[in-house]
Amino acid sequence: MKKILSFTVLVAMALTLVSCGASRRLATISEGEQELNLIFNGPEYRTDKKYFRDNGFGVSKDLANAKKIAMQNARQTIASMVQSAVEMLVDNYADSQSADGSDYYDGNDLQELGRTVVKTQLSGLEVVEEKAFRQADGTIRYHVCMQLSKDNLCKAMNNAIDKDVKIKLRKDKDSFKAYFDEKIR
Predict the structure, then answer these.
(1) What are 96-105's pLDDT values in tens digits?
(2) Is residue 35 part of a domain?
(3) For the whole model, what pTM was predicted?
(4) 22 located within any domain
(5) How far is CA 64 from CA 77, 140, 142, in A?
(6) Which of 9, 95, 117, 154 is the one with CA 20 to 30 A from 23?
(7) Which of 18-22, 62-66, 137-141 comes out lowest in average pLDDT?
């Protein structure tokens, strides 16, 4: 009985190893396919604790236009990321305030303030790296990685809260600022 059990375990292990190898073979490149070299795809080009990051590319007959397209694509993606993060943060904060029984809280003021801050902070986007390639047909493909500092965003949001009279009068201003700093950074 013990030998049958041992044999069964060995067969199961062998099948597992064979099937794992088979799935790796399926992932090989088929005839006519080429592996692409992704530009700005490493961890240093991704959003982390300090920065919102993204990359974009543009193709045009002239470098200036290709660069403009690439930068606009990266800006739009970063703006979406930041806007989503701020909206989710404000919604979660509003929910936590409602759960505490604070009926006086209106998240619309902070939501609008967040939109304003995001729009003004996008002018602070920095270029991390850029590359341009002339393609076989003469067009130029331009790649750019851009970033927005989370510290600067938090400072701008805190400054905006300090200046906003409606929010300034509310007692939860400091708790929101702390919540915002904790979740964004």
Answers:
(1) 766 655 555 5
(2) no
(3) 0.68
(4) no
(5) 20, 10, 9
(6) 9
(7) 18-22
Question: Domain containing 180: what range?
Answer: 40-184
In angstroms, how far is the first alpha carbon of the chain from the final one?
Answer: 60
User: Would you say residue 25 lies in a domain?
Assistant: no
Nearest alpha carbon to residue 65 among 53, 76, 54, 73: 73
H helix intervals, the chain = 2-26, 63-99, 107-121, 150-163, 165-168, 173-184
AA identity, residue 161: I
Q: What angle do CA 86, 75, 150 make, to 5 degrees?
A: 40
Tokens linked to 109: 């003021």
Is 1 within the bounds of a domain?
no
Assess whether pLDDT exceeds 80 at residue 9: no
